[in-house]
Amino acid sequence: MGYRIVVAGATGNVGREMLNILEERQFPVDEIAVLASRRSQGTEVTFADKTLKIQDIEQFDFAGWDMALFAIGSDATKKYAPLAARANCVVIDNSSLYRYDPDVPLIVPECNAGDIHGYSKKNIIANPNCSTAQMVVALKPLHDRAKIKRVVVSTYQSVSGSGKDGMDELWEQTKAVYNPTKDVPPKTFTKEIAFNVIPHIDVFLDDGSTKEEWKMVAETKKILDTKIKVTATCVRVPVFVGHSESINIEFEEFLDEDEARDILRESPGIMVIDKREDGGYVTPKECVGDFATFISRVRQDSTLDNGLNLWCVSDNLRKGAALNAVQIAETLGREVLKKG
Ligand SMILES: NC(=O)c1ccc[n+]([C@@H]2O[C@H](COP(=O)([O-])OP(=O)(O)OC[C@H]3O[C@@H](n4cnc5c(N)ncnc54)[C@H](OP(=O)(O)O)[C@@H]3O)[C@@H](O)[C@H]2O)c1
Known about the structure:
With 340 residues, the chain is α/β, with parallel strands linked by helices.
């Protein structure tokens, strides 16, 4: 016996990946419903060998469905997640709406799967921000060994992190560079993204940081350890899929780079590719479609007593969103609902 699963936002970047990953990981699905806004009602998506028709979320009755994987943005989530949760359908949400709610667990299964039991307070489980998800997968085993004091991270985030519209904007602006008769002004991003980088993701906060940077700080604390200090600079780059991060870590105890590499190699969800030669590291293009978080360039930071640097790359639509959501669904099934 399997589960009756809802995928809300099935026409979007994350929703489509959720369907792919449910199939790839052979999630025990008895029945699946695919939802989006009224705009998409009746359009078709594929799941395994089936063609499914999109239903309007506004007309959908969540009663009798086990889990709903949501990827519809915070505004729509605010309206529909409580309806699903009240109908006893557990919501696994990709938006930021519930991530900081103390009554909602924020889960990265490699790090804090045990927190999942907190789902029952609201029938909602939150999925972290894409940049946080891959970073905490890398930090967790190192923190367990040498206690992390402080993290300095700079991100290189792909345009798919801004949804379908962000990918279209990079594509259209790139074409326009070669066809200057057509002007494609910035819409999703604040400046032209083609052949450029933009040190600004989400809104500015009073202290000069951005909400994206704040999310990395708050979510790392909630998932790993409130004592870890994090400072982040989040940057959008003209890459379609795959987020990269340069991470500097200060530990309480000394951790040798070779030992760190060995620890990471043995840890769940991580693939270490770290040869000190031309091309001996992973770039975002190579991680697309993969489940792993890739680690390269592990090296001692000689400016600190107990410091390491590393490079961390992952498919933001997978570990950063859809894969993590499906892993949460697997954990919920295994630990709580026990149907599959
Ligand atoms: N992309 C990432 O790397 C990433 C990572 C982590 C979290 N997330 C989060 O995941 C969510 C989806 O992101 P995305 O990248 O997939 O965006 P997207 O490609 O723009 O897709 C948005 C999806 O939401 C649906 N939607 C929008 N408004 C709706 C409404 N009022 N009612 C029902 N459905 C509605 C859209 O349906 P229509 O086609 O009908 O408009 C579409 O299916 C966002 O909350 C985002 O913050 C994304």
